[in-house]
Amino acid sequence: MKLKGDQNSATLFELRPDHFLIDAKFQGYKLSLETLPVYVVPIECQIDHAAPTDDQYSLQHVKLAALNNHIFPDPWNPSSVYIVDHNWIIYKIGATQEKAGQLSKIWTIPANGSKQPGRFNITMIFPDDGHAVIADGCGTIYILETNSRNSEADTNWKVVFHQELFASKKNFQFIILDSILYQEGTTHMDILLLRIDERAEWKEFLEFHQDKYLSSSEHPFVSVLEWITLAQDESKVWSLESKRCLVGRSGVDYATIEPNGTALYLASDDPYYFAYDSKNPVQLSNAIEAGGDSTSESDKSDYVWFQNGTQIRLWFRLPEESKKFDFTIDISANDIHIEYKKQVMLSGKLFDSVKPDESNWTLESGKLEVSITKSLPDAWKELIPGNTVGEEIHDPELVEQIHSQLAHMCSDKWGADPHKSDVYDPQQLEECDAYPADTALLMRIDRTLQKITNQASLGSHKWLFNVRTDPKSIPSMCIRHDVDGIIWQPDTSVNTIDGAGDTGTVGWNCKHIGTFSALGYVQASKESRKFTVSAPDLSYVAICDSVKHIHVYRQPSQLENDLRNRKTGTKVSHIARQQVIALDPPLEVMGAYAGNEFLYVLTSKNLHLIRMNEPENF
Q: Among residues 53, 54, 223, 366, which is most buried (max CB within 10 A)?
């Protein structure tokens, strides 16, 4: 019996930049000494901040606490932001064309005597122009009707639903990652939450995934995504309709819900697996009862294989006492032949040509890995045409786990130089030695199929930040590509192709909508960076240091008069400006939000409103 959440059938896709949106002749940012107007609004009460306890020592805990953004923007009313003080009072502040507004008290979060050590920071999100979703960091969620938030008298917030969601769990604290409203018969609201749980709480689930990277014992915590759905009846009363749960090893850099509530889009260092669904039970318990194996003996593959743009890797499971001299392995430009104790394990003509001189194999504790280098960077539809005893996998984390386990072992190479020492092998030094390849994933996880339907390997294309370019669209993400920062917008017009139902392949991709030239290189040089934020219109990006300095990088603008480069003599018609803002007084930066007109920066005692662009009619 196959687990419904099996990840192996995910469709691979590539993030391909639009070269018309990349400036190959970009010459860098020019420092501008132009003074920007800065309005300072004092914060009378201390900003609420929760620090991790001694028991919350994982990387996930540290990131949640240290990088938490204490400014809550409203994409439906971009001229205003919200903050929360240590008394759990929510304040709103906006700005007009002439000046910054004043702090306005909006609503007080009920404390319920739960501000205990170990709580998470408060999070707040606005799924539409009439609702707010708030998590108090202590296990309670609130849904509020806010009516119009564009008015000055934005104080009529009304609680329409609240509940302690995970009171029976040891680690009940959570934050909100995303929330949407949609129509499915009645009005529904989906909310995506993040908890951090101890591995011991997921013993059976992890045992089931014992061959996955998720089961790495060096990480004492796992990240848990709680995906809840609320429904509104005819009397406008909200109730909890369903719960879903996904588990992964690391946190998420990007997380959003598909607009119709049918899938999640995630960017993470590790894949996530369905663990629970109250409406459509995940078929995990039966697999555990059968011995923790998701396939019967007759369904097991003789081998598994994985491919990327340059390599093919194969894995065979054999008795642990297997020795190297038990194998005969021959690889030519077009054929492969593998024998174990004179029994043929795999033999035939390959799908495409390979480079036999760059092939190698390793053996450890009965695990045989064979690595083959492609001649051309094309995707293979199958390893050996007509061979059905092998299974292609699309889980790069599983590949990395197996590769790391075997990396220290010696290897046999075809065409190896007998005079070259095995201590150093230049074939083993690749880009992944500088930055882990194939570890970061962008994935679409389907609600009905309970699995990853599409995924792209981010590899060395490091995630930089997220930005919402339109309140009615899901957030975009900025990914490093070479030295640039590429803005990608996930495609929400998903269609099922090549079949239907549980076996259908889902078409999904991302569109390149903008570029910040050289931003990948720039951000990598900012060792004190805490927040990176971009204006919705992508006119500028701001990198905020942990204390005092804000570095602003603007898109190239047209010059009134053409200049000439003194070295090359070429005409320069556009110039990209860089500006540095020093906050006074120099205090710790606790939050940042970039609007089209104002950049909001929150410190422990002040909210700084920096005018970045004049409105069109000003």
A: 223
